[in-house]
Write a structure and sequence with these properties.
Largest sheet: 3 strands, antiparallel
Structural class: alpha+beta
Distance between the termini: 19 Å
Strand content: 5-15%
Number of helices: 4
Order of helices and strands: HEEHEHH
Helix content: 25-40%
Shape: elongated
Strand order of the largest sheet: 2-1-3
């Protein structure tokens, strides 16, 4: 979660939300980006201890009465998609685990033919 918030630190938070999905029937949580910057724990589930397996960045635009005509809806959509990409999409990178670290003492053991213990 913190990694995602760091990636979105320059994003203007208006209209942006984060959805955390958990496996099975566990609760899905949904919070504004603005609120999560102040309190990341808001995305935790009150009803489940299950860890979220998916985090989604969601951009919502209130189109209220703009569904009256196709042209207006399409124009609003054509504004929203580039805005989402500019504010968030281009900043996101997939999470990857940190590479294993080998200390200098462990690498010396390796040179002598002994197996070092790897840690993350």
């Amino acid at each position: 979660m913190n990694s995602l918030l760091r990636q979105l630190k320059k994003t203007e938070p208006a209209g942006f939300f984060i959805r955390a999905t958990r496996p099975g029937k566990a609760e899905t949580t949904y919070q504004t980006l603005k609120d999560l910057r102040d309190s990341p724990e808001l995305l935790e589930s009150d009803t489940s201890n299950t860890t979220a397996t998916t985090l989604e960045v969601v951009y919502e635009v209130d189109l209220a009465g703009k569904f009256s005509g196709r042209k207006v809806f399409v124009e609003e959509l054509e504004k929203a998609v580039p805005h989402f990409y500019q504010e968030a999409g281009q900043l996101l990178k997939a999470w990857a685990p940190l590479p294993l670290k080998i200390s200098k003492a462990e690498s010396e053991l390796k040179v002598r033919g002994e197996e070092p213990a790897l840690e993350r």
